[in-house]
């Protein structure tokens, strides 16, 4: 398996990215192709005593920053490591692409250069997020601010396939993020999506209130990208608030400091368990080949984890299954129309 | 000041409601008018040795349940305690109305029976929610699933007035819940709302990402009712998840149980501080007279707190100020149009 990695994406590029690739190669044995300025990569590796002679390099002279407008990946930044990496993915040079760079540019670039799977209306960011027991996929968490019901139906289908194949959850429960559990709840988008999701051959359990998302919820939570992003970031904000308050208590006085010494390890374990960063980022679902968005703040370990997950994404042939399921639905729809 | 209270709204009606009224009367000296079946009220009071002879009762034979369709308040449930209470509020029998009953029915009833303030497009639920330091108003938290930008502008104005007058925050910061801080972020509704809020003469600080809502955020968070409801309930769900996990740790073994004994009081204090239920419910903003929605699960103390907050809502003349500000804006708009 060959995984192309954007060596110049993210806050800690290129050093931490290359280090992460080194770790992934040593640990999982994947072939790694680094996309980025070859001279700079070699210089950094030399300075840091990093061995990369067993990795390919695709030379790309430019890079796209977090501040660049997404559309620039097709224009002034068409020679960036991200654009060149995505082009090589499209050309079949590698099996998947990982980047910790500009999210908007990755959506635009993956859509326009690597292209969506046939029949997919929109690609979606789909992070795996820990909940009370296990974890769930939140799809879409921010690629599309404005969605139609048919898109949400596809998000549900793609999420279900990913959770079953990669996360090994049998018959994953798919829920629609909504303001009440009853079928008639929510705005027009939710009502229409509810209907379409019910008719999609997946294990659709209906609406899930936001209160239940971190508790029992579902294995896949379907949302438009606006709502999904609110959920994702509030998750993070609330964890930050509560751990902050807890920390205040534990350092308040001698008594609470003693308590802290007794539970510090457990608290740390819990914090790690709740931290959605543990998964290294989010697959971009719906593209013709696996694309994975690692966190902008990725360190070497994050990149290693992102590459491992991307490996599973490739190995389990998720894109092929999505493509087959959507095609099958389309044929059935056409048959239905013909019979009418 | 006369406050009408729906004696038959909420899971614990009528006993806990009447008890709460008793406490509020004794503590704050408000005149209380109970709306509900007089016979039943008297029977409950007798059985529980509750003194209510210093409260008026408005007889209402029926009541509306949590399962009733909101619209029924105008039809089959027009003689319910909620409908009769709202009618008496409209007729000037009392200065405000408090109910722990069916939220949807309260929105419909308040809008159709008591009526909105002139110029207000939609009323909105606006709970006060604790954050890292202090608290914020979330407006709308669920009265309107589908909103236009002009409504969000009014939510911002109403929230700003309430926080200044009732919560005594000078020049409250108003933020728009969005997926990024930059002006161009979000869907069409957000982009249009951003523009209108900027031109509203309030202290609009721009977009607030969901991550920052529980941390620094703003004093007023403006959202459509769908997004607001997701925020409100995820707040609750995350608090539940994290306190649940803390609890697991603290009862894990002898060592952590010892730690628990040292910090239990602090944890409880923190839990109370974070609990948005401490405020007893949410004002329904935009109605011609103060209407307050207490939590469905209200106990006597919740009702007492709800009545106290409602008293402030009346005393500070919030509805009059909202009405004046909106009228003033309208005049300026007309002047502007005439000049063009």
Question: What's a concise summary of this model?
Answer:
The structure is a homodimer of 340-residue chains. With 340 residues, chain A is of the alpha/beta class.
Written account of the structure:
2 copies of one chain form a homodimer. By secondary structure, chain A is of the alpha/beta class. Chain A has 10 helices and 12 strands. Chain A has a 7-stranded mixed sheet with strand order 3-2-1-4-12-11-5, sandwiched between helices. In chain A, β2, α2 and β3 form a beta-alpha-beta unit. In chain A, α5 crosses α10. At the A-B interface, α7 and α8 of A face α7 and α8 of B.
What features would you highlight for this structure?
globular; five-stranded mixed beta sheet; seven-stranded mixed beta sheet; alpha/beta; homodimer; 340 residues; 12 strands
Ordered list of secondary-structure elements with their pairings:
The structure is a homodimer of 340-residue chains.
Chain A: E1 2-6, H1 15-28, E2 31-36, H2 38-47, E3 56-59, H3 81-90, E4 96-99, H4 103-114, E5 124-125, E6 128-130, E7 135-139, H5 149-165, E8 173-178, H6 188-198, E9 203-209, E10 220-222, H7 225-250, H8 254-274, E11 281-285, E12 291-294, H9 300-315, H10 318-339
Parallel strand pairs in A: 1-2, 1-4, 2-3, 4-12, 7-10, 8-9, 8-10
Antiparallel strand pairs in A: 5-11, 6-7, 11-12
Q: Strand pairing plus helix content of chain A: what structural class?
A: alpha/beta
SSE string of chain A, helices as H and strands as E: EHEHEHEHEEEHEHEEHHEEHH
Report strand % of chain A.
Answer: 15-25%
Taking all Cα atoms into account, the compactness measure Rg of chain A is 21 Å
Kindly, what is the distance between the CA atoms of the first and last residues of chain A, rounded to a whole number of angstroms? 46 Å
Provide a count of the helices of chain A: 10
C-alpha geometry of chain A: globular
The poorly predicted ranges of chain A are: none
Q: Say how many strands of chain A there are.
A: 12
Q: Biggest sheet of chain A, open or closed, and with what strands and sense?
A: 7 strands, mixed
- Output the strand order for the largest sheet of chain A: 3-2-1-4-12-11-5
| Overall average residue pLDDT of chain A | 95
Question: What oligomerization state is this entry in?
Answer: homodimer
**Biggest interface, chains and residue tallies:** A-B, 54 and 54 residues
Helix content of chain A: 40-55%
């Amino acid at each position: 398996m060959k995984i192309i990695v954007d060596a110049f994406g993210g806050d800690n590029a290129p050093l931490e990215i290359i280090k992460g690739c080194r770790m992934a190669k040593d640990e999982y044995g994947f072939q790694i192709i680094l996309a980025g300025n070859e001279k700079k990569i070699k210089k950094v590796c030399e300075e840091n005593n990093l061995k990369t002679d067993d990795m390919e390099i695709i030379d790309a002279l430019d890079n796209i920053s977090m501040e660049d407008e997404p559309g620039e990946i097709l224009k002034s930044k068409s020679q960036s490591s991200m654009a060149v990496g995505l082009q090589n993915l499209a050309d079949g040079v590698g099996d998947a692409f990982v980047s910790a760079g500009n999210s908007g540019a990755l959506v635009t670039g993956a859509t326009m250069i690597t292209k969506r799977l046939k029949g997919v209306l929109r690609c979606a960011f789909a992070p795996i997020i820990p909940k009370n027991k296990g974890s769930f996929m939140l799809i879409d968490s921010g690629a599309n601010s404005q969605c139609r019901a048919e898109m949400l139906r596809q998000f549900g289908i793609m999420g279900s396939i990913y959770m079953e194949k990669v996360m090994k959850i049998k018959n994953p429960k798919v829920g629609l993020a909504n303001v009440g559990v009853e079928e008639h709840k929510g705005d027009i988008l939710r009502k229409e999506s509810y209907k379409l999701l019910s008719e999609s051959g997946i294990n659709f359990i209906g609406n899930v209130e936001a209160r239940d998302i971190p508790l029992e919820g579902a294995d896949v939570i379907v949302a438009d990208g606006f709502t999904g992003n609110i959920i994702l970031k509030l998750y993070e904000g609330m964890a930050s608030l509560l751990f902050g308050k807890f920390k205040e208590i534990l350092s308040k006085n001698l008594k609470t400091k003693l308590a802290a010494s007794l539970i510090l390890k457990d608290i740390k374990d819990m914090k790690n368990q709740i931290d959605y960063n543990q998964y290294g980022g989010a697959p971009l679902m719906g593209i013709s080949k696996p694309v994975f968005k690692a966190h902008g703040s990725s360190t070497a370990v994050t990149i290693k984890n992102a590459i491992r997950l991307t490996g599973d994404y490739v190995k389990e042939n998720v894109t092929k299954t999505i493509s087959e399921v959507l095609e099958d639905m389309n044929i059935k729809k056409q048959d239905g129309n013909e019979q009418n």
